[in-house]
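INFO batch 0412 | record 1 of 1 | parsing
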Amino acid sequence: MKTDADKLRSFLRQVVPIVETYGRKSVINDIENAIAATEDSTTILFCGEFKRGKSSLVNAIVEADLCPTDIGVATSVITTIKYGAAKKAVRYYGNLLENPDSLKTEEIEWNDIGKFTMGDVLEIDNTILVELSYPSPFLQNGITIIDTPGIGGLDPRHAILTQIALPKADVIVFVTDAGEPLTQSEQNFYENKVLPCKKNNVVLVNKSDILTSETLVTHINNTKLELSKLESPEVVPVSAKCWVLYSKFEDNEYLLSSNRDAVLTTLTMAVETSKINQYKAYRDVVIAELSNVRESMLSEVQQVIKDTDDKLNAIEELQRQLASLSRFKTDLNNPTSQIRLKINSIFEDARNDVQNLISHEGRILTSTEFDTLLESEHGLENDGRWLVAQINEKLQKLSRKVDDMMNDAFDKISESIEREITNIVGTKSFILSNEFKIANVINSQLAFSIAGKVMTGSFIGGFVGGVGLLINPVVGIIAGITTAVALIWKQLSSEAKQQKRISLKQQVLPKVDLAITDMRNQANVSFTKFHQNLLSTLQTIIGEIEEKMKALQASIQESIASEHQSKEKVAELEQKIKFCETLISQMKLLYSKPFSDAQ
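INFO prediction complete | emitting tokens
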């Protein structure tokens, strides 16, 4: 038949494979060790006020005069008695209060036990604890008895030692005296010292032989009544005196008067109850561990399901984005599509603005500004070179203004295209990482901008090569207009200044008109080239995005292809969860009456 410890161990064997997966096997190992310790050893502690007969009861139970008894206060130390095939006595001594870890030990002669257990501190040589080993049948199953000094005496050290020993007990036996009612100090000690230990406890009313049967019943009932205000412990009468006499003479009258059998039965049941309570505590720890593992597995199931759902949602989102990109690419190739019309509109507006700027500034330059410069006091200075330098500077200023306007137009077009792609790719798309977006969307914007800058540069370079007015003024003017003016000036040197102005205007203005015309033509060429490059670059970028998205889609589809593995994982986890729940339900019944009956 399984013991209570065996029942718990059988569950532990089923629990280990589950909890070790989640790194909790060490907890189960600790519980296994604790079960073994509880199974092998139980400590019963006797306590109470002085002269209640605690030591006499202990001696009667172990069937030997091990603990000192005397008319006065006898026991002055903690005495532990455990089973041993050979008798042995060891004392622990030192200053417990100042340094508990400094206690020394020595084995003492068996006949010298009384020297170290009775008397004041000096008489017992500062002994704190005496540990005895003795072959008592009652102790053979792992029971250890602790006898404590009586409380309420003149020596406060006795109470301190008892309070130190109390937490070490598995069962606490509180001994009272049938010769007097339960005192207030006894009630206080029971309430403030015994009950807080939360251990199984028994109350023994010693010296029951001094009362008649009727009086004893009344005394027991009164004791129960007083203690019921705090708890409802087992209250059992006993006569240590009659117990000892029975052990010597085996007279049944002494046996009946001692109530030995009832006391032993009560103590045995208290020991078993204490063990079961310990096993229940261990069981509850295991249940808590199983519950934590169950919660972890539930979370894992939810995560696996969520991952599968996320992948399916990702596929749908990628398919939507790919379809949108495909439509967008088709629209780029369709001159009548909305995006192409939008791009063309931006181009035409920018082109018109540039052409209007060139025309407007050109008219002003070839009319009022030219005349103003020519009529100024420096107009004919240095054979007209000053005039040409001023015209050249204004042409450069106009070129820079045209360059800035075209840059703004190209940037505006790039930003518009980027917004279109971003709307398709989706800035909130969970499937695209930030790196993916940066590498494609933002770089695409840079590509547009770079295309614009290159085209603008080509425009400037072409204009310089065609007209020769926007390069270094010294080089440009000397090599171009200035040379012609110098030749003209020699022919007109004898004419009046006004005639000189007319001649100079007739020779220079056509070249300025030609420069403005070339500027207008080069602007148109630059817009056309940028338009072509933009569409080409855009097609390339969209193609790259499509390829990366397709690769990502293929990767996710591979995961979806193994969806049956996820289902198997979920099924496996759900089976383990169900097994955990079954174990938890069964373990909750462990040590309960229905479960015990089922065993």
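INFO post-check: The radius of gyration is 54 Å.
INFO record closed
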